[in-house]
Amino acid sequence: MAILPILTAPDPRLKKKSLPVETVDAGVRQLMDDMLETMYAAPGIGLAAPQVGVLKRVIVLDIDREDVKTGPLFMANPEIVEASDDDVIYEEGCLSVPEHYSDVARPAEVRVRYLDHEGNSQEMTCEGLLATCVQHEIDHLDGILFIDHISSLKRNMILRKLLKARKEKERDEAEGKAPAKAQDPEHAL
Ligand code: GNR
Ligand code: NI
Fold first, then answer.
1. Which of 10, 62, 83, 189 could, after both became Cys, cross-link 107 (CB 3.0–4.6 A)?
2. What is the pTM of this model?
């Protein structure tokens, strides 16, 4: 297993459409395992392959909150086959959009078809935070970030700040300074 570097916006790879896997072979299983380790280390509750620079339709999730406990979930070629008419709003964050959060409305319940870690076809009904998260991850496979669901004014402000933060980090690293990274416990993912 390995912890992989996570790409942050703006990065052209995060805007690309990922390709389906043909089968869940040893390589795809290795990717799933590395992604799970990377997600736990971040920490996050979901991760999509394009976030680690691999343009394959693979996602991993593990939601552990008071209301929902899923254990690790591995999904290749996930597809939403049914969505509820009613939406819910969650304040979303993303490991590829660090330190920014916005309310996003999405269907409250979705049925997802996917290939699991063994390559078996599965279907699962997701609700609550899991429904939001699985839709957020599938969006990544289509080059869509949660900031694409908010106003362009707010999105451009966030992208501008991310670019500025990256430039400052690069400059500090060039000058040999230690990284000054503040953690916001209120929004720890
Ligand atoms: O860790 C994460 N938390 C989260 C919270 C609300 C809605 C979506 C997410 S997914 C995010 C990890 C991530 O960026 N996955 O792509
Ligand atoms: Ni994300």
1. 83
2. 0.93
